[in-house]
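JOB MANIFEST
job_type = single_chain_structure
chain_count = 1
residues = 191
[input]
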Amino acid sequence: DEHVGTFTLTEEGDYIVNIAYTDRSTNKMKDYTSHLIVIDKPLPDVAVDYATSTEVVLKDTDGNDREYFNDVRKATITIKEHNFRADDVVINVKAKDIRGKNVNVAALTFDENGNVNEYLAQGASRSEWTPYDIGTVRRADDTYEMSIVYENEANYTFDIEYTDLAKNKAKDRKTDYFTVDKTKPECVEVK
């Protein structure tokens, strides 16, 4: 005889289904254990926090509101997601010099704490997003972060996107436009 039963998993969570059965004649069915089943409904939450702020905001030549800084700028990217995987983070950082030419740095560099020193490489590989695989270790609060330190003088554009394994896409955030300009003006002498 064949009997079919169904059940529905609707609540957010991680599930493993175990089925064991013994008939009236004490014949045991081979136990069944499913793979991990994940129900993931919430959108990932992506936030970018800068350690410095400015009161100087001007329109750039492309019409974007651009912030100006006279020192290094550090960004901390935080993603809250239960099923986080670093390979699914898409970061796009562009840097141009004062003449509008792309500043080309071959790869990411890291400081002694494992933070990214400079992220200028356009289309850098996902493995460069972080110096260690945080996708394999789940934090208790499902929050993951990394830092980018912008040390070079340049006009920067920063954008980030994230879609989780269940194809839930984080809300689109406004692109950041800012300039790091550490060079002091020189005194011009007029005669």
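[summary]
The chain has a mean pLDDT of 78.
Residues 74 and 149 are 4 Å apart (CA to CA).
exit_status = 0
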